[in-house]
């Protein structure tokens, strides 16, 4: 419904058998949407080719979990549990724990706040289980044992997830109201095309995409084809913007002029660390290339020797 791509749909479950890609054109940007086959209980152990399906979700920016509004709430717990089992953490942020392996010196354990879930002895036991005997651990928040294990493993992926309840046209208004009020949830109906515009707006909001328009010197800005940046992928600074255009552009940049909400006045001279915001206009000013002997009437370099005594003597005039 969102991309205009044909994906097999029927009244029975597990109709989609392979990954079907489609492109959403929204706010002058292209967002790729992948329709994945349904996963079953035990998918994290490989049942029903579950691991291949989940591995595609690991590389995405946002997971849309499509659920049936007429079925029980247990489906949501099963799917979340399967994704947690393969290292996907939905709607969580990385724990504030500093962990660094060392070659010598034993285990150094510190915390900035009182801990209620983990103590020093338990931390030592967990590290010894992983055969780590020299490390530095600093807790910046009251984290749990699971959070500590996630940091030690280091291969966890923290992804935003929106729970989308489809088929709201077959349940009562009270059930729809209850589902819509749950955190990170949205209700839609593909059959009657209800609330699809809100779904697109929510996707845009969750992904945090930043559109930056380019402006050539002495010309109008190009508002047709923006450069799309994201905080989760690369970053939103001027340096990331230049890298996005061409990797060799950075060494030629003198400064940039920025118009938009991130600028204090129009235009603002900015450096490479300036953070851009949505719908900013950027003009890059490059360094001038100077030739060996300078340019124009006033040469900056001369080939003549510095001292008078080193100058070439002219031949005496003939009389």
Automatic annotation (TrEMBL):
It comes from Zizania palustris. Keywords: GTP-binding, Nucleotide-binding. Residues 208-286 form the TGS domain. The keyword Protein transport does not apply. This is Developmentally-regulated G-protein 2. Residues 290-319 are annotated as: Disordered. Residues 308-319 have a biased composition (Basic and acidic residues). PANTHER family: DEVELOPMENTALLY-REGULATED GTP-BINDING PROTEIN 2 (PTHR43127). It comes from the Eukaryota. CDD domains: DRG (cd01896), TGS_DRG1 (cd17230). One of its GO terms (molecular function) is GTPase activity. PROSITE patterns: G_OBG (PS51710), GTP1_OBG (PS00905), TGS (PS51880). The keyword GTP-binding applies. Residues 1-208 form the OBG-type G domain. InterPro entries: DRG (IPR045001), G_OBG (IPR031167), GTP-bd (IPR006073), GTP-binding_2 (IPR031662), GTP1-OBG_CS (IPR006074), TGS (IPR004095).
